[in-house]
Amino acid sequence: MTKRSEAENWNEVFSDLMLGKPQGDFWLEKYDPRLASAQDGPVIDLGCGSGCDSLFLTERGYRVIACDFSSKALAIIHKYIPGAETMLFDMTGGLPFPDSSARAIVADLSLHYFHWDDTVSIVNEIARVVGTSGLLLARFNSTRDVNYGAGQGLQVEHHYYEHEGRQKRFFDESDLRRLFANWSIEVLTETDMHRYGKPKICWELAAYVR
């Protein structure tokens, strides 16, 4: 599937969902003390989707830049979260921000669609944008997330599958420690989330650039 058709697919998903105002699961709440260091600059919501995390952050006074490559997702942001800025781009082409221009990035279930080399490049771009001591808060699909496709379909790479025309990656702890080997990891825990119809198993990460 080309990147253009993938963007079109997500536009269709967000159009069909007929979503109202985003409803988050408050997973960021426990990270408020860490996010406090980002009060003087933007928090980038990378792969923001319908804006659950952008809403949480704007309601707490953060300046938020909500980023996605689905124009339909960003239309939801414009409608329900007018306090957030928006940017439309494909993160595999790099992040269109200057070095050290944000103190924190949130990537909530948005880093699992890519080949490993692209994933590494995106994480390196995140490090560049937040700079030394900059914060990443992220959630990732777990290899135990069987309700949402773990281990299903054709394995394209280690823990990366193509199923029903979509490609999706699932992570175990060693994958994440390898991906963030040059970061200072403060939190890495496997947990359940209940944003969707069935329980979803994912990893939560809080890490700083060394």
TrEMBL record:
One Gene Ontology molecular-function label: methyltransferase activity
Residue span, Methyltransferase domain: 43-134
Keywords: Methyltransferase, Transferase
InterPro entries documented for this protein: Methyltransf_25 (IPR041698), SAM-dependent_MTases_sf (IPR029063)
Superkingdom to which the source organism belongs: Bacteria
SUPFAM superfamilies found in the cross-reference section: S-adenosyl-L-methionine-dependent methyltransferases
A Pfam match: Methyltransf_25
GO BP of this protein: methylation
Name the record gives this protein: Class I SAM-dependent methyltransferase
Organism: Paenibacillus hemerocallicola
